[in-house]
Design goal:
Number of helices: 7
Shape: flat
Largest sheet: none
Mean pLDDT: 79
Structural class: mainly alpha
Strand content: under 5%
Distance between the termini: 102 Å
Radius of gyration: 32 Å
Length: about 150
């Protein structure tokens, strides 16, 4: 009889979950972020100290010439709110597009041994499309500056 009671007690203990099963896991996950928070706190303190020190140490004596608009050593030619030529924006956007697309080459180069021929041919297709786009822009005159 005692033996049966012991068996029942063991079965119940196996099927019942402990009362603190989920509590410890959340604390360990939050503890993993403590170094990041410490690093962030140190960065904020150091940057605040540098900005505050610069404001305290620098001479704050503005004068009319120092506060005037400055354009490459010359007086401004026109109103600073005038429209820029679209070519400035076009060249900037083209640079960003090609720069970001070239950034995809780095992860591909690192994993080239793992992805095999499929990855190689996929990247060659990507580079082919990139080259066709570059040739199209070149022929349309998007890269010419007149």
């Amino acid at each position: 009889m005692v033996r049966r009671a012991a068996l029942r007690h063991r079965r119940r203990a196996r099927t019942r979950a402990p009362a603190t099963a989920g509590q410890g896991k959340g604390r360990t996950m939050l503890a993993a972020y403590v170094p990041i928070l410490v690093f962030l706190g140190i960065a904020i303190v150091i940057s605040g100290a540098m900005v505050g020190g610069a404001m305290l140490a620098a001479r704050q004596k503005p004068y009319a010439e120092k506060l005037s608009p400055y354009e490459c050593g010359f007086e401004p030619f026109d109103d600073t709110r005038r429209r820029f030529d679209v070519r400035f924006y076009l060249v900037a956007i083209l640079f960003i597009i090609f720069d970001l697309e070239v950034a995809f080459l780095f992860p591909w180069a690192i994993t080239l041994g793992d992805i095999g021929w499929f990855g190689f041919l996929s990247m060659m297709g990507f580079l082919g499309m990139l080259t066709v786009g570059f040739i199209y822009e070149w022929r349309k005159g998007a890269l010419d500056w007149e």
